[in-house]
Every structure is written in C-alpha cells, then in structure tokens.
C-alpha cells in the first residue's frame, strides 16, 4: 500500500500520510510522492481545498533519521531533500493540516507549510533536532519564530520542549483545537472551497509575501493584486450573486 493516500469529496481533497508503523516519518521517496500528489491536485480546477492528515498517533514524527543518517553531507545536498519542502510551499490551493498526535521536527515543518493548522487534544508539537546533534533544515527556525515569536521558538528549538494542543492554540500555532478532528477539518475545507479560486490564490501569495516584505511594500503588493482581480470573471459573478442574495458559482477565472 502507498505511503501517501488521497481521496476526493466534491471540491475537497484529503491527502493522508500512511506510514503509521513509523509514525509517518518521511523518507525521501515518501516526500517525493507527497509533492507529486499535491501538485496533481493543485493542477485540478475542481479541487479548491486540500486537507493534509496523518494517523491518530502521529501527523508526522519528522524525517526518517534511519534512512538519512547514513547519507553524507554532499549526498544530502545533491539529493535536494530539503528543497522538496519548497515545492509544498508553492502549492496554490489552500492547504489545511489536521494534526493528531506527534508533529515533530519535519512534521512540524510540514504543518507550518500549510495555510491553516487545526489539531485535536492529542497533538504534540516540537523541534527536537538540537538534541540529536542537528538543526531543522526545512524552514523550522524561520517559520516557527514568525508564528509564535522568538522566545517560545527558541525555547522549543534549544531545549527541545514540546508543546501540547492548548499551548499551541494560545501561541497562535493552530487556529482551533477540536475533539472531532476529521469532521472539523472537512467542514473547514468545504467552507474554504467556497471561496473564489483566484481570490484564494492571491490571498496565499499576499500572506506569503508578508514574511518577505516591509509593511509598506506588502500593502502595495496587496493593492496590486486587489486591482488585478477586479478584472476577473469571478469578481463579476461574486458581486452579482451578492446583489441578488444568491450563492456564487465561481469559475476560477
């Protein structure tokens, strides 16, 4: 059976990491398969939201150190393993991480690449790399500090401390904690899928740009996207539907 499973329900796709016996630890091959699956779904006009899930015990416990430990520095560098995470960041379709159990190391980095993270009460988040003699290599030091702030990020990075779902909620790492993770993830995805596809894609670009730009430049970029989307068919459809108190049928163009 494949390590990456996917199913489609209307405008929503659910992608599941399926290596529960290894707590969904990612091998290079598994990450390749995940990227391929996400890219294929991203290219489909009928898919407007993607839920990324794991198993009850682990969303993802990180990169598979057993398969990576024997690789030399040059082998790792030439493999492009870390760069594969960038391909996930490039997905334009909204990504929702549904976290149950462990989200550690590369698992937390994978969740941070998603647009929204929701969790159940069993979720545990951490970046334990420093305690096995390495550091995060897929954006953990950069993205975590932007989400939770320097002090908590450094606490987790240097001490290896793990935080539970409630602390993650308080820190802004997750948007909600629920006792019905699958149901809530799907409900959220269905709601996101109602958004105009062009608007969703532009919002993702604008928010991503906010990490790279000063405020003034970011506002100017947002303004340019806002002007650009005014020329779209979806804008006309949305305004007409709003005026007539109807549900819009967006075309993605």
UniProtKB/TrEMBL annotation:
GO molecular function: enoyl-CoA hydratase activity
UniProt xrefs under InterPro entries: ClpP/crotonase-like_dom_sf (IPR029045), Enoyl-CoA_hyd/isom_CS (IPR018376), Enoyl-CoA_hydra/iso (IPR001753), Enoyl-CoA_hydra_C (IPR014748)
SUPFAM superfamilies given in the database record: ClpP/crotonase
Pfam families: ECH_1
UniProt keyword terms in alphabetical order: Lyase
Superkingdom, taxonomy of origin: Bacteria
Keyword Transmembrane in record: no
Record's keyword annotation contains Lyase: yes
GO BP annotation list: fatty acid beta-oxidation
E.C. numbers: 4.2.1.17
Family under the similarity heading: Belongs to the enoyl-CoA hydratase/isomerase family.
Protein's name in the database: Probable enoyl-CoA hydratase echA8
Gene giving rise to this polypeptide: echA8
